[in-house]
Structure formats: C-alpha cells, structure tokens
TrEMBL record:
UniProt main location, coarse: membrane
KW Iron-sulfur (keyword) present: no
Matches recorded under InterPro entries: LeuE-type (IPR001123)
PANTHER family: ARGININE EXPORTER PROTEIN ARGO, LYSE FAMILY TRANSLOCATOR
Locations listed in the record: Cell membrane
Descriptive protein name: LysE family transporter
Keywords assigned by UniProt, alphabetized: Cell membrane, Membrane, Transmembrane, Transmembrane helix
Keyword Hydrolase among record annotations: no
Membrane topology designation: Multi-pass membrane protein
Superkingdom of origin: Bacteria
Transmembrane segments: 35-57, 69-87, 129-147, 152-171, 191-209
Length: 210
C-alpha cells in the first residue's frame, strides 16, 4: 500500500511541477543569466516545496488554513511578494540593455544566494502552493502514517522537485537555447512579470471576494 501511495504522490506532484506557473516563469528569467543562478533558483524552489511538505504532514498548514486571520495574513504577504517580484521583472524588461547585453541582470541579482532566496520565496509565499500540498496530503496520506513513511514522502517531493527544476536549469542554460533566451530577456522578464502580477491580483481578488 505504501508503494502505491508513493507512486501516486510522485505522479501527481510531477504533473503539478510541469504545469506553468510562477515557479516556471522564475526559472525562465533566471535562465537568461549564469547557470549557477538558475540552479540556485531550482534549489530554492525545491527547498520551499520540502518546507510545504513538512508543514502539511505535521499539521501546521492545516492550523494556518483553519485560522482566518493567519491564512489571510499568508495570502496578503504572498500576494505582495509576488506582485513586487512581478513589477521588478517588468522594470527589468523595460531596461534597454536587457535586450542587448550578454549579461543583462544586475550583479546583485545573479548571485547564487539571490537566486536561491527568490526561488524559495516565490514558492513558499504562494498561498496556492500551501493549499495544494495540504489538499494533496490530507487526501492521500493517512493521519496514522508513520514518520518513516513521511520521511520517504519528503525525499520524493524534494527529489522530484530538484530533478525537474534542475533539469530545466541545465537545459535552458545550454548552447543555442541559452543564447536565444538571453536575447529575449526583455520579453521574458515582461511576460513573467505580468504573470506574477496577475497571480498576485487573483489572490487579493479571491481574498476580497470571500
């Protein structure tokens, strides 16, 4: 039964990883810079997914969602961060040098630490990610599951995440594709920025609606 559960979780998570969203958009923008930055962003996203997994399996995510005030705070913080990231991307895309230089990103943005933290916060502060993992684990993982099984689940979630985003990091920063992405950095920043802003607005709109 555990093996079937692990396979089911891995399949659902892999499909979710491959779906377009803020994480994928961030990887595209980071791929216009050095490979190390893209890999660091992949590690940051994967680390956030691991934290979401731990929070869900330990019941903390359920407590957050069960508290209207706390969940509202998470949504507001997440939407503000995603909106700020989106505006920053759009501003970067409007910089003329971004479309013409081989190293369009400012030095402060291309460090590994910066890439890791942007990847981490982009996923960690997305309320939709919290709800997704909470729903996934509450539906499939028994409350009586042992910590051995939970440890295996954490390894699967982190391993698949880093494998997928790491593959993207290496693939997008290889050969002619990397050169093409660098030339299209302006457009990628603008499109990714718009996506981040739309997601931020949708979170706030949902908050106001309810």
């Amino acid at each position: 039964m555990e093996t079937q559960l692990f396979i089911t979780l891995a399949g659902i998570h892999l499909l979710a990883l491959m779906s377009p969203g803020p994480d994928f958009a961030l990887m595209l923008t980071k791929a216009t810079g050095p490979r190390a930055t893209a890999v660091a962003a992949a590690a940051g996203i994967s680390a956030a997914i691991l934290v979401h997994t731990l929070l869900s399996l330990s019941g903390i995510s359920l407590l957050i969602q069960s508290s209207p005030a706390l969940f509202t705070l998470v949504k507001v913080a997440g939407s503000l961060y995603l909106g700020w990231m989106g505006i920053s991307m759009i501003r970067a895309g409007m910089t003329p040098s971004a479309a013409t230089t081989d190293d369009p990103a400012p030095a402060a943005e291309i460090s590994g630490g910066s890439g890791f933290m942007q990847g981490f916060y982009t996923n960690m502060l997305n309320p939709k990610a919290l709800v997704f993992f909470l729903t996934l684990f509450s539906s499939l993982v028994s409350v009586d599951a042992g910590w051995g099984d939970k440890l295996i689940i954490c390894i699967i979630m982190f391993g698949l995440s880093f494998a997928w985003f790491g593959l993207l990091a290496f693939g997008l920063t290889s050969g002619g594709l990397h050169t093409w992405l660098k030339r299209k950095a302006c457009w990628l920043n603008n499109l990714s920025g718009i996506l981040f802003v739309v997601v931020a607005i949708s979170i706030l709109a949902n908050l106001l609606y309810y």
